Amino acid sequence: MTTKKDNHPIGRGSATDRDPNTAEKFQFWIHPDQTVNPFDIVAAEHFPAEGSNEPSRTFGLVTNIKHFTDAGSHLANLISNDFGEEVNQPPQTPRQGANVAEAAVLSNSADIYMPVRNESRVYFADEEDIHRALGIDGIPEGRRVPAGLIQMSNGAQAVAYLDRDFVLGPEAGHVNISGISGLATKTSYAMFLIQALLQKSAQDEIAVILLNVKYDDLLHIHEPRELSEEEEKVWKQLGLEPKPWPEDRVHYLLPNGKQTDTTGRPNCFADPLPQQHKVYAYALRETAPKLDLLFSDIPDPNDTLGAIIGEIMSGLSGNEPAWRAVQTWDDLLTKPPLVQQGIPQKFQNIHPSSVGRFLRLLRRVVKTRQTGIFVSQLSTRMTTIKEEIGNIKGGHTYVVDIARLAPEEQTLVFGDVLRTVYGLYSGEMLPFDDYTPPEKVIIFVDELNKYAPARGHGESSPILDQVLDIAERGRSFGMILFSAQQFLSAVHERVTGNSATKVLGRSDSAEINAGNYRFLDQDIRYHLTRLDKGELILSHPIYRQPVKIRFPRPPFRQSRAAK
Asked: Which domain holds residue 60?
């Protein structure tokens, strides 16, 4: 094995009659002066390739480290210290001990997967070895997207690259990020990865839609933040420019509020407001095609609500005679065909009591609990999600703020975004004849478990059906979902299962024992409970094992809540 002058062996392969090395894992004892940690990548000397005198190298990911001694039991250790009386004195019987690391096999430089032999010399892998071990060396340069830094215990570093064909298609798609809030830095990582994709792609190839769900986290992405020298160094090391989004390519869509007509201020946390913002709202006629989204969280076992909503959507969208007098939300709640003199009426074959239930639910959403996005009619200063998202441009980013909306309103807006984009990319709804959507569109949303809960946490709903459709078929159209949530187990398995790239932040011990984490080695799962802020576990289709990475903080101004 050819090694660099400063790359000395850190140990030797170790196999015993009771604990053998296998084609899937190997063990090695560690030199007393060396420090090795889980997620280090090592290279062990192995059989030479046919026709070669040079040993091949078997690469392994360290998953656990154990300390062994020649003591037969813990009791023997106690006895050797005068039955525990000599705590501060040298033991009467010094023990011989060794640290032994377990490593999961990643690959072999000559595709030889015989078990690593006893006494094989083991080295820390360098960047070239790490790329070969993970399969990164097989990614063409034009498809490499930097996803973070792999840091080794000996100080060596390597850039972890993703294959964009497995993020944006056609091979696979979608990214899911999970971890405890505040510690996993989920939104920060999503924004970093999106910036990396934009910088490594053609200028107008990708459009981005961001759902801002917390405070004003994403309402300043065009404003630069002062970076430290170390932060700038990491960005450069990753081959990226530490710069915010271009101001002329960011569009902020902020919700109308109850006081917006008086104050001119949208219902959002941003202070000051971004100059390039527009205010969106929902009038009845514009909302008719997605009225069902308002009732996504309402149980409807007999589909009575679905039947009423379907008739209303069809009647309003088709401007049928019975519905022509219904122009506003108040009209729908107080006028025929659903209401006569304040009394719910039988409609088609739907009983008046069912109509009454629908009206009570609708009144609660658009009147009692609404935050201001439901209006009688759209004024000249207002826009709609369909109008803005339905004409997206490549290279542009659209931030849709839903942070201060009620849950039903958030579901409506998110569903509206998904349906509008789906209509564009499926060809069902184009703004004009010669319009061609960007080649790819990335949609990022946090708290995905609200819209696509795991089975048993909710029934099928219009918003869930839309999310599942994009998760399962969106990649073929060019729609890529970047999603995040605190608990991976809380999201529908068809969404997480279709996310080719999974990013895991710090999680608690109860969460990591859920079935959703079966794809991780048990020792790696336990390590999830010890991750520091800014550390993530990255699982990608071309990697033989997940790796631990670090990534730099965003180069744009973040909200006070994010600091």
From this structure: 11-125
Domain match, 469 and 545 both? yes
Q: Which of 295, 262, 268 is nearest to 280 (CA)?
A: 268
Residues 228 and 350 grouped into a single domain: no
Instruction: Tell me if 322 is assigned to some domain.
Output: yes
Determine if the pTM surpasses 0.85: yes
Q: For residue 279, which amino acid is it? A: V
- What's residue 560's pLDDT? 52
pLDDT recorded at residue 469: 95
- Regarding whether 97 and 30 lie in a shared domain, the answer is yes
d(C-alpha 385, C-alpha 400), whole Å: 9
* Mean pLDDT to the nearest integer, 288-316: 92
Average pLDDT value over all residues in the chain: 93
Q: Which has the closest alpha carbon to 542: 109, 163, 127?
A: 163
Do residues 81 and 221 share a domain? Answer: no
Q: pLDDT for 112-125, tens place per residue?
A: 999 999 999 999 99
Residue 216: C-alpha distances to residues 188, 254, 268, 445, 468 (Å): 13, 11, 8, 14, 28
The answer to whether the beta carbons of residues 240 and 196 sit under 8 Å apart is yes
Tell me, yes or no, whether 19 and 121 share the same domain: yes
Q: How many independent structural domains does the chain possess?
A: 3
What is the per-residue pLDDT for 458? 57
d(Cα 518, Cα 529) in Å, to the nearest integer?
16
**Which pair of tokens denotes residue 432?**
């004009």
Helix (H) or strand (E) holding 106: strand 97-108
